Amino acid sequence: MNPEVQKQIEQLKGIAENPKKAVNDYIAATGKKAVGCFPIYTPEELVYAAGALPVGMWGGRRTGSLADKYLQSFCCSIMKANTEQSLAGDYDMLSAVIVTTYCDTLKCVTENWKIAVPHLNIIPIVYPQNRKQKSGQIFFAEELQRVKGKLEEVLGADIADADVEAALNVYEEYRKTMQMFTEVIRDYPKTFDAVTRHLVIKAAYYMDKKEYTEIIKAMMAELRKVPAEDASGMKKVILTGLIAEPVEMLELFTENEMYVVADDLAQESRQFRVSAPAEGSCYERMAARLAAQDGCTFLYDYGKTRSQRLFDMKKQYNADAIIFCQLKFCDPDEFDYPIVKKDMETFDIPMLYLEFEQQMESVGQLRTRIQSFAEMMD
Amino acid sequence: METKKTSKQLLGEIQDRHYADAMKAKEEGKLVAWATSISPQELLTTMDIYTVYPENHAAAIGARKCAQPFIDYSEGNGYSTDICSYARVNLAYMEIMESEAANIPKPDLIFCCNNICNTVLKWYENISKELDIPMIVFDLPFNHEYEITDQNTKYIKAQLLEAIDQLEEITGKKFDYDKFKEVMDISIETSIWWKKAAMQAQAIPSPLNGFDLFNYMAIIVCARGTKEGRDLFKLWYEELKAKAEAGIGPWKSGEEEYRVMWDGIACWPHLSDTYKTLKKYGINMVTSTYPDSWYIVYESNDLDGMARAYSSNYVNRNLDFGVDNIVKLVEDYKLDGIVFHSNRSCKLMDFRQFEVQRRVEERTGIPSVIFDGDQTDPRAFSLAQYETRVQALLEMMESRKKEGK
Question: Closest partner residue to A75 among B83, B139, B351, by Cβ?
Fold first, then answer.
């Protein structure tokens, strides 16, 4: 691969692999504040508009027993890791944390965090489930303004609507760029193997989106000079779920000559696959974007459209299989799985179910499952 | 002359009739809804839509020890053992449609109110998809602030009006606002009698064996909008009041030595074991969070009040409220201890339990224990562990009593 692209990839991978360092470096270099953003569709635009760095909070590798004070053993590993990390002081560089309430676990985590880590200034946000109805649209526009007010208080910043508008435009440019980027890298399955693809996308959570978008654009410009890589003999898969971590799991795809041709992951493409409409106030545009965010189990999925989307994606990218990435104890995905499974059987699309935790010590069992699935596809 | 029926007799009759009438309604071509347990049934009742409650039904299947085959069936379809067991039972029942415990008809629409959890949203989404029927979602935002905000109230009220439009479309009928008022009146009255009856347990000794709350709960869920329901709770109240005035305790044999609260849903498949273990040590469960859960009271015709009432359920409230709520129960019911059910099905209750327990113990000084169980999955409960925890609680309560507390 072109050395320029390789350099850009290494830079982004470095950030995604060391988020704490990336955020601390950013704060030191810019003097700006940073605000944590829980999964999944936290309104980073508001944080950006306040002149602060929005930081994605997607768990991590830390394990321990601090979180046991609040959470039972059958809690999802992202929330356990976030709680463990917050209690260990890993997030002390953050001026505030926006916590979402999509699922029952998140509602409880919101409440526990207010008590466990009050210095992190917890700002809860509620997303309307009736997101397509007028009532939900109005509620969400109000909720965004309420959260904006809380951010102003905590950060001591004034956030004008024009700032939010400008931030939304930065994010729209990021989303548009990422939609193109995921198309472009499909031609380079060896350079953008499962791990690299994931880390390059993930790096955006710890960077100024404007800077990140510029790097991605520069990378695409370089990639256009490079001929497509030979993918013969490689299987194309589509990942669906909340996340596909740890990276050791993703390495198994490469090991078995599979590459990710597209994803339907909440942590990855669902972040940018839907653009906001051009019309309306910034809040209305953000609410309209939420209304169009279909096929995601964390939002009321009118008519349960996830399977149809996977079917369409499979067809569009000529994929060989779907991988259902089930983070253990994630209820919303656990409810979707039987429906998706049945539909994929009806569509005659091969699907592999993988259940994992973010901090798993061994991927031995996953290796066996992925290996046998790869053999079955041959 | 016919002797007057007791509330317990009526309870059984209403329950049986509820299921029988639902089947009859379906046969007659009337619309049947499946709804969540604390949803604004007033809208459905006004529209003459016969409403049954999957949570109630799953609990009945669990209590009659019939849950396991349904659970196995759902797990065979790919449902994880880690999701709510009511959902696992119901999603299997939806396909099997036969249980010796009780039968309910297939729904024509579903009505989902997420004030009890977000799980119902995903569960009902699947029913709607599998049966290809309309779904009405009544989305009650989680109250992370102590009070129910005007912003939330406005959203909920707007949804009530949207739901009426949706129901008019589904039924092809106009919504009858006069009838709505009547149904609201009855529903409010039923709620008031339900709570008044449950509050009789504040007497010492309590005339109420709190496990009866679990039995009567079936009716507050399925008959809240009916005169039969209202009359039943009024009668139950009168019976309990008379007992309390006569100083009669909860049991025919044995005295009430200790008074505890049960936090969380019952372990339906082990109802008898959980009850007998407490009774053996003279421990009466006098209250739980149930009395308030169906105390859905507002001014008739006040949709803002109705919106707030449906959002007030403690699991939809923040932790400060949850703690205050239990502290008040400790005081009002003069409790000696608390039994917390760590219910594998209910993450919304579980993941706050540790902090609630710490803070309630700190504020009230009364001891408590947590045991592992499940509302309908019989495999998640161990009688030995339960008994050990109850004994530990007993020891702590005994030593407090000796200290004169």
Answer: B351
> Left (φ > 0), alpha (ψ -120 to 50) or beta: where does B191 sit?
alpha
Q: Based on the structure, what is the number of domains in chain A? A: 3
| A334 touching B (Cβ < 8 Å) | yes
A85 touches chain B (CB under 8 A): no
What are the residue ranges in chain A where pLDDT is below 50? none
CA distance, residue A307 to nearest chain B CA (Å): 11
What was the pLDDT predicted at B1?
53
Enumerate residues 36 to 75 of chain A having a beta carbon within 8 A of any beta carbon in chain B.
69-72, 74-75
CB contact under 8 A, B350 and A129: no
Closest Cβ–Cβ partner in B83, B114, B144 for A334: B83
Residue A22 lies in a domain: no
| Topology of the domain comprising B7-176 | Rossmann fold (3.40.50)
pLDDT in tens, A35-93: 999 999 999 999 999 999 999 999 998 888 999 999 999 999 999 999 999 999 999 99
AA identity, residue A81: A
State whether A75 and B122 contact (CB < 8 Å): no
Domain that holds residue A115: 32-157
If asked whether residues A129 and A196 sit together in one domain, one would say: no
- Residues A253, A377 share a domain: yes
Separation CA A31–CA A27 (nearest Å): 5
Whole-number Å distance between alpha carbons of A240 and A66:
31
A7: Cβ contacts below 8 Å, ≥ 6 apart? none
